[in-house]
Every structure is written in C-alpha cells, then in structure tokens.
Amino acid sequence: MLTPEIAVDLIIEALHMVMIMVMVLVVPGLITGLLVSLVQAATQINEQTLSFLPRLIVTLLAIILTGRWMAGYLMDYCVSIFTRAATLVG
Predict the structure, then answer these.
(1) Residue 32 burial by CB count (10 A; 0-12/13-18/19+): exposed, middle or buried?
(2) CA 17 and chain centroid, separation
(3) What is the pLDDT of residues 27-82, one digit of tens each?
(4) Which of 52, 48, 55, 50 is nearest to 27 (CA)?
C-alpha cells in the first residue's frame, strides 16, 4: 500500500535526480558565462551576444560527456520506481 511516507520519499528522490541532472548541464554554462563576462568587463567590450556561443559549446560538451551517465542514472531510477510499484501492489 502506498503510504504518504513512501510517496514523499519518491518525490524527494525524483527532485534530487532532477537537481543533479540540471546542475550537470547548467553549472558549466554559468561558469563559462561568468568568465566571458569578466573578460568583457576587463576589455570593456559591451557585446551582449558574445557569451552565447561559448556557453552553447560548453553546454553541448557537457551533454556529450555526461549524456551516457545521465541516461544510465535515469534508467536506474525508472527501474527502481517500477520495482517499488510491483512490491507495493502485490
């Protein structure tokens, strides 16, 4: 039987997984944007679109480098959800 405690645990695990997967993709782009902004401030270049390409490249590299891990992590989570659902039903 699905109790409120089990439901809360499932939601917490799902949010934890989402936070980890988003951080893996967003944090490198944020750091790259910060570094480009520092260079722009130091050189007084006021071009708004200059930081777009480096952030895009870093985000794509993060997807390429961690895509297999993220897919495996998501599959493991789905398997654990289905296993728990089977034990809760019967």
Answers:
(1) buried
(2) 8
(3) 999 999 999 999 988 988 888 788 899 999 999 999 999 999 999 999 999 999 99
(4) 55
Q: Are 73 and 17 in contact (CB under 8 A)?
A: yes
**Which of these, 70, 76, 81, lies nearest to 19 by C-alpha position?**
70
Q: Is the full-model pTM beyond 0.90?
A: no
- Per the CB < 8 A criterion, the answer to whether 29 and 11 are in contact is no
User: Helix, strand or coil for residue 48?
Assistant: helix
Q: What whole-number distance in Å separates Cα of residue 69 and Cα of residue 17?
A: 12
